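Retro notes (design track)

What went well: tokenization of the new backbones is finally stable.
What didn't: we kept losing track of which sequence belonged to which structure.
Fix going forward: every design gets posted as structure first, then sequence, in one message. First example under the new rule, 972 residues:
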């Protein structure tokens, strides 16, 4: 009969049919069961919606009519298992209806408990009502679909949801005051869950087969090895943010994280062969790691946790774990010629990471083993530990900086003596390493530039003062050039510096990955000065006219001189002997001249054909030929300057004209490696080393960085993924995944872009059924997700500027953080430990740390390019996969990818999930089995703070529910 009244195609909700039926059912003191049965029939016939019925029931407020209430509770209990939606209109009102229903149940329960509180007993009818209410509440809480809709409703209507919490507070107070024991033992827990529904209450199938941290981590050491190689100048907060990201991904406790960081430093340091790496890694381990641990502890400490006074408990626990690794500690003791634990802890005790009791305890545990090892080492080798040099370098660094800041005119001789002393042995490397990890490198460079500026030639100056000035100019120029070669000009210099040295670097210095145009170098030369220099240097015993040409003029105009020499030599108007004479006169004056000349020649070699390289190469070799003993003895501190100039020249030459193989090459580079071997051969060699070790030696990290620059991120990512897919066992795959993820941080943004736009689509499309089934599919999806999360969080945690992660871009990003640190520590003077280090007192104050790093805890709000475009591309590829209704490895990979995004990224992955196409999850639900996709995954996919997100979530939840109901009906 109702069907005759309601027009075809219209629903009963439009005519408030459920209201009409319920009004008829609840006219008297008891509900009419026949009318309620008719309402149930209307639900089954889709005449009315569950949302409309539940919303109407929740409006019933005659709580004195117990029989009506019990009938309604019985009715609700009977329909809860079928609650769903079938139209968009129903979906829009269902969350509000569920919120209202829960509020209604809370009111009934509150009425009962309040009555008991007043009368200290319940009537038989009230007891039955109470039992029915508990039953409905339990059934509701056990229904994951309804809980998910309630979670959406909480976001949609927070005002109405707040009434639920108010009723819950009333119930809790009444239960406490009256000592009333509900008939259902768990109903209090259920009520609390309804009042404080959260996403963790919603079931989600996790793909992580190891919910606890793995027993051995292969990620921390490679990541730190890459970062110390690539970004040694970075602020402490940079490493802290990266370790926090890793801690979230790996579910590490603070103790485990601290242990992994300390162990990573030891593993890296125990396997370096070159002094530059030895000192850098040693300085990082001894100076930077304590600060990283302090900041991590301050950030991860709970607000209620007391501030540690003389030690950090997690650090002590980490050392307990470290002492179990006897082989590593034995190797470190032998390499460093000391009891490494004792050495490290004595310094950490001063920083209140451990106390004296712990130092004695741990040192005693290692004393016997360390003494035996050191005795054996003393019998065979008396070399002193590099650690001793590193620790001792901190005080000289402060002294050098203090001397450089003193009035130049008063300390010229003392300054020259200090700088030349720095060049003796490996002192320069040590000072640079300590300055780098302590954040004082830029201060060192800026003061060296000022020294070089003050040392420019003054026309007419003669005698001893002129000699000291020229030597200071030479020493400071060479030191600055060496630093720029090591770190890159973008890291240590400002963009528009107007000093002579900064202008020379911008216009004339050949750098790694920054080739210079030799024609531009020639164009800035003054023809008159070039002619005069050429004429002077052509004489057997060249003596420059001090009144006309200064040292800085020669440095700028040497490209023009050498170009004339090259052209004349090519045309045979100059003989080889004439060229040798000119070059000898250039290098005889200042070693800086040899460096400036080599820079031009290297740039020139880049711009000519192979057959034209021989002459400039021979000219560079002439600069690498030591001058005669008489000439060397006539200058001050010539040996040290000569050695440094040779090192600089060899690097410039090698950038322009690499010779020999990678393995046999004796030249040590601190930056990029160049080789004539095929890229694939280099990769296979270095990967075999990494695979054999299970970690990344610093030398291997250098080679891989070279391959990244030479072949690009897509090639490198493809080779790394292939190595991962070759593994036969999942354990080996997961190990390889961790190493690859760490290596990707050589340029995480570009590698992630390559993975998502080139490598993964090609593998999934072209190799289905080959090697992308389980577990390869899972591991590949996890690698992509790890890289996305890291690229997403790059530079967002500590307010870094939005630049790519590479050595040539990082230095400028540190200024903001250094400025913040200086505000906390005071004036940032050179006598302090570091500009980016907190003082002992302020470090342990959680408020300072929280304000400084508050952005680390915030969810990044938006994506940058190229990450956003890459994710949009991979999602479009996924959308093409799920157009079919047949389940395939491709579609299962899509499910794994999305599920792992949610599982690993949690709230911080929101900007990525916003890019999900509207129909992707809807289509995926139609293909996937509902046992794989649960309401917890769907609810986490969308940002429920916004209306579009709530609509999408409810739509997908209802589709999931209908598929589930259909499967259940088929089984029946």
């Amino acid at each position: 009969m109702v069907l005759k009244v309601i027009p075809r195609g219209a629903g009963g909700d439009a005519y408030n049919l459920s209201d009409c039926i319920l009004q008829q059912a609840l006219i008297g003191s008891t509900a009419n069961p026949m009318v309620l049965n008719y309402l149930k029939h209307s639900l089954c016939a889709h005449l009315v919606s569950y949302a409309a019925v539940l919303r109407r029931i929740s409006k019933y407020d005659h709580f004195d009519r117990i029989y009506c209430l019990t009938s309604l509770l019985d009715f609700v209990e009977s329909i809860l298992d079928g609650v769903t939606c079938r139209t968009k209109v129903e979906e829009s009102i269902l969350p509000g209806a569920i919120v209202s229903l829960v509020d209604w149940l809370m009111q009934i329960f509150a009425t009962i408990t309040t009555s008991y509180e007043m009368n200290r007993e319940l009537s038989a009818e009230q007891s039955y009502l109470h039992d029915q209410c508990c039953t409905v509440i339990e059934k509701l809480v056990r229904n994951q679909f309804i809980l998910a809709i309630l979670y959406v409703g909480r976001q949609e209507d927070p005002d109405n949801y707040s009434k639920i919490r108010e009723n819950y507070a009333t119930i809790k107070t009444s239960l406490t005051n009256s000592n009333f024991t509900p008939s259902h033992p768990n109903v209090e827990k259920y009520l609390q869950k309804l009042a404080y529904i959260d996403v963790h209450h919603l079931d989600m199938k996790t793909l992580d087969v190891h919910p606890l941290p793995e027993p051995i981590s292969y990620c921390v050491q490679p990541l730190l090895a890459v970062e110390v190689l690539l970004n040694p100048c970075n602020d402490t907060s940079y490493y802290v943010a990266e370790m926090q990201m890793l801690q979230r991904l790996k579910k590490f406790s603070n103790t485990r994280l601290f242990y992994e960081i300390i162990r990573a430093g030891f593993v890296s340091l125990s396997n370096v062969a070159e002094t530059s790496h030895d000192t850098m890694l040693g300085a990082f381990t001894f100076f930077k790691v304590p600060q990283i641990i302090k900041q991590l502890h301050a950030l991860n400490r709970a607000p209620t946790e007391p501030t540690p006074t003389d030690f950090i408990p997690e650090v002590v626990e980490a050392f307990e774990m470290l002492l179990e690794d006897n082989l590593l500690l034995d190797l470190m003791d032998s390499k460093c010629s000391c009891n490494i634990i004792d050495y490290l802890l004595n310094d950490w005790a001063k920083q209140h990471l451990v106390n004296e009791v712990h130092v004695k305890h741990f040192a005693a545990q290692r004393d016997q083993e360390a003494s035996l090892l050191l005795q054996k080492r003393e019998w065979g080798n008396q070399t002193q530990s590099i650690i001793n040099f590193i620790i001792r370098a901190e005080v000289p660094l402060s002294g050098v900086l203090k001397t450089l800041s003193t009035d130049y005119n008063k300390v010229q001789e003392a300054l020259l003596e200090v700088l030349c002393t720095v060049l003796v042995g490996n002192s320069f490397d040590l000072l640079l390493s300590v300055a780098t990890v302590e954040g004082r490198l830029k201060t060192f460079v800026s003061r060296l530039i000022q020294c070089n500026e003050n040392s420019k030639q003054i026309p007419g100056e003669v005698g001893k003062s002129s000699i000291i000035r020229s030597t200071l100019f030479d020493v400071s120029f060479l030191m600055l050039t060496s630093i720029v070669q090591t770190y890159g000009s973008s890291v240590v210099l400002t963009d528009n510096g107007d000093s002579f040295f900064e202008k020379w670097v911008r216009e004339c210095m050949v750098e790694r990955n920054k080739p210079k145009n030799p024609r531009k170098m020639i164009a800035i030369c003054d023809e008159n000065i070039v002619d005069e220099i050429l004429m002077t240097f052509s004489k057997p015993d060249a003596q420059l006219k001090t009144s006309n040409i200064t040292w800085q003029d020669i440095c700028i105009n040497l490209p023009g001189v050498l170009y004339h020499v090259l052209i004349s030599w090519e045309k045979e108007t100059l003989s080889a002997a004439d060229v040798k004479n000119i070059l000898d006169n250039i290098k005889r004056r200042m070693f800086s001249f040899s460096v400036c000349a080599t820079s031009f020649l290297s740039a020139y070699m880049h711009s000519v054909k192979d057959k034209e390289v021989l002459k400039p190469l021979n000219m560079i070799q002439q600069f690498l030929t030591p001058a005669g003993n008489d000439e060397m003895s006539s200058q001050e501190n010539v040996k040290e300057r000569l050695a440094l100039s040779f090192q600089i020249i060899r690097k410039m030459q090698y950038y322009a004209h690499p010779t020999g193989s990678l393995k046999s090459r004796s030249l040590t580079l601190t930056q990029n490696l160049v080789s004539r071997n095929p890229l694939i051969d280099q990769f296979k060699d270095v990967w075999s080393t990494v695979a054999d070790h299970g970690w990344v030696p610093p030398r291997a990290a250098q080679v891989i960085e070279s391959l990244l620059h030479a072949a690009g991120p897509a090639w490198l990512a493809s080779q790394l993924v292939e190595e991962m897919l070759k593994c036969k066992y999942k354990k080996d795959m997961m190990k390889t995944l961790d190493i690859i993820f760490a290596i990707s941080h050589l340029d995480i943004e570009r590698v992630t872009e390559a993975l998502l736009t080139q490598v993964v689509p090609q593998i999934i499309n072209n190799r289905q059924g080959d090697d992308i089934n389980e577990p390869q599919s899972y591991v590949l999806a996890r690698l992509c997700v790890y890289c996305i999360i890291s690229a997403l969080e790059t530079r967002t945690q500590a307010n870094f500027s939005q630049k790519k992660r590479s050595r040539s871009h990082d230095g400028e990003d540190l200024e903001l953080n250094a400025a913040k640190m200086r505000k906390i520590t005071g004036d940032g003077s050179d006598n302090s430990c570091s500009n980016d280090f907190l003082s002992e007192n302020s470090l342990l104050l959680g408020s300072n740390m929280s304000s400084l790093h508050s952005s680390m805890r915030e969810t990044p709000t938006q994506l940058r390019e190229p990450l956003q475009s890459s994710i949009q591309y991979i999602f479009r590829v996924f959308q093409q996969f799920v157009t079919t209704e047949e389940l395939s490895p491709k579609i299962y990979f899509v499910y794994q990818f999305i599920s792992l995004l949610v599982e690993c990224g949690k709230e911080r992955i929101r900007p990525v999930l916003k890019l999900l196409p509207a129909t992707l999850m809807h289509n995926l639900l139609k293909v996937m089995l509902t046992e794989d996709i649960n309401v917890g995954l769907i609810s986490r996919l969308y940002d429920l703070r916004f209306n579009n997100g709530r609509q999408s979530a409810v739509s997908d939840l209802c589709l999931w529910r209908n598929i589930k109901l259909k499967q259940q009906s088929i089984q029946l």
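Added context from the reviewer: The first helix runs from residue 2 to 5.
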